[in-house]
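Field reference: sequence -> structure
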Amino acid sequence: MDGMRTALVLGATGGIGGAVARRLQAEGWAVRALHRDPAAVRREGDGFAWVRGDARDTAAVTAAARGAALIVHAVNPPGYRDWDALVLPMLEASLAAAQASGARILLPGNVYNFGPDAGPHPDEDAPQNPLTRKGTIRVAMERRLEAAAETGVRSLIVRAGDFFGPGMTGNSWFSLFARRGRPVRSLWYPGPRGVGHQWAYLPDLAETMVRLAGREAALPAFARFHCGGHWDADGTQMAAAIARALGRPHLPVRRVPWGLARIAAPFVPFLREVQEMLYLWREPLRLDNRRLVALLGAEPHTPLDAAVAATLADLGCLPDGAAGPARGPMRRDDALARVTPEPLSRAGEGQG
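Structure field:
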């Protein structure tokens, strides 16, 4: 593509959407950002061309995508809610816009697609037989994109582990460890000791996505890739990195009391929705990124300590008061902070 390439980003105020938008801009793309109220979210100097519109409005998305080479579909219902009613209609609007503009759709994926039969180390073509509602919806999204390739709509899906990093939202599991502007006195860990878990640092993931988008000539019409990100082999490494960043080697790590949380779930939407995804903390699932490495040569990777420190700084949680740019309050329920924790370990000690 000659000249300045244009990308339309849906979800530019979110964690991954914002990270991809900033990375695209750094790589010389012109970035349009769709939002229902641009005046409320526009930041001086962000350099984005803000466009008013709703991600469910096909006409608005199509108009905003005119002349774009890439549509970043990074919108999700907040707080894990209303996936069945909102997720697929939003994707249909992006598909119509891509059909009209000729743009490729970039979809940030995750591991919800996979059930037990995918195995502990699935590649991009592993069976997708999830046991959850959200996983079923994710599979439907990917199948819809695959079918659209038959009509000329190109797409790129990049799957990764749980997000963390500057600009992350309260939908991230990392928000159990640290909340914006609050001191970290202990860590709440969602899973049992000894079970591995996969994380994705937002700046690394965004760079990976933009690099892939820049290899258009090498991509099939329907392209899928896995990111390796950060693999916490036994559930201790993320907690230990947080403790090091805080300068508190004996920071307590407490297991989330999910039994009490289930009692509160009918009254707290966040708790109700995350119950479904707990299986990802009880069984190890590590994405195979060999296809990605074969194309790019290497996956962008920030060392864990540096990534965690940058995340905590952005949240304003470091003891020296260093903080990233203000991004507004983290919107998540505080119910987990009101139940009695069960001690699990110390962050600086091995958990076997």
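Note: Confidence is low (pLDDT under 50) at residues 321-346, 348-352.
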